[in-house]
Amino acid sequence: ADIRIYELRSVLNVAIPFGTPMDFQLSAASAMVHARPPPPSGKDKQVAWKPFPHKGSNRLILAVQERIRAVQYDRGDVTDVWQVTGSVRCKAELEGVPEVSIGVSVPPTGHPLHHMLIHPCVLSSDPHPNKATLSPTHSPAPASIAAPRVRRLTFSPPLESFALCHYEAKNVPLPIRGFYQMKGDKTIKLLVQLKLAEGVKNSFEYCELRLPFFHKGPITNVDYLPNTAQVSVSSDLRTLVWNIGQKFPSRSLEMSLNATINFSGVVEEDGDDDQKATLQEDEFCVGLNAYADLKFKIPDYSATGCYVDQKTVSLYPNARHKLITSKELVSDSYRIWNSHGDAQLVYTL
User: Fold this and answer.
1) SS3 of 14, please?
2) Which residue positions in the chain have pLDDT lower than 70?
3) Is 139 buried (19+), middle (13-18) or exposed (0-12) by CB count in 10 A?
4) CA distances from 347 to 72, 73, 344 (A)
5) Residues 6+ away with beta carbon under 8 Å from 116
6) How many whole angstroms from its chain centre is CA 153?
7) How is residue 20 annotated by DSSP?
8) What is the pLDDT of residue 192?
9) Exposed, middle or buried: residue 43 (CB in 10 Å: 0-12, 13-18, 19+)?
């Protein structure tokens, strides 16, 4: 009973150290319970954000993770919209309670980070990185010699993985431009064209386009060009899946898919609960109102150019450690609407 009370006390000290819930992961609570650190002696004070010491080799993992949400219409009267957000995640497996200092960097050719929110464990941050390179009245140096924009963060990390900071970016070009044209009813013909933007890393962990069809019934037949395309139909026979692969053609950076699809025209309502969930209709997507969802992940790349420069990382007191840095861009609701139908829009007044 005593050890259980101590475990509960340890978890509460981290989750609500001052009576207010903090940014806390339940996985950390599980790790605390299984580690079962010895109760602190009267001379040692338990640090609220690091309730038990790390045992083993020192390792520091810093990952830039960016997500892009986009809606493309391919219509002259409607403007495409998209948003890029990002975070720097940290996992510090370090002995003691060291202070870690890193530089969140953006190259001169990259895009500035806006509305940065930092974790409560950050002890200090430079709110005006490299004023000379950011000032609008300053004549920028050539990109080949200009210094990167660096925002230095000093923090005392907890043991669990956490988001060190969140940010937004503006005026970032779309990494993949898409065009979707579809006509027909029980038999439809569609054309999808995708173009990778210049400068975007042409190496994907995955890249897949999904085209759901509502109020048409199951797919009965698909003919498509080119024949080399990896096209399949989902298990519920309602979605066409185009596996684009890991690269676009290096010369054109473009890919296209022509397809003719036949449907049964019968929308089944019977079936078990799992089947009903997969057959749930979208009330807006009737007739030519349709969209395609693009899902992709580009490792070792960020849309803003943001990265953690390993040369800017330091520990105090100094200790040998293994440093792992990474960056990635992941799509999040990357939607392309059929240009021959209506689309869901949001108008700002």
Assistant:
1) helix
2) 1-3, 6, 10, 13-14, 17-52, 127-147, 267-279, 346-349
3) exposed
4) 15, 14, 10
5) 151, 165, 166, 167
6) 22
7) S
8) 96
9) exposed
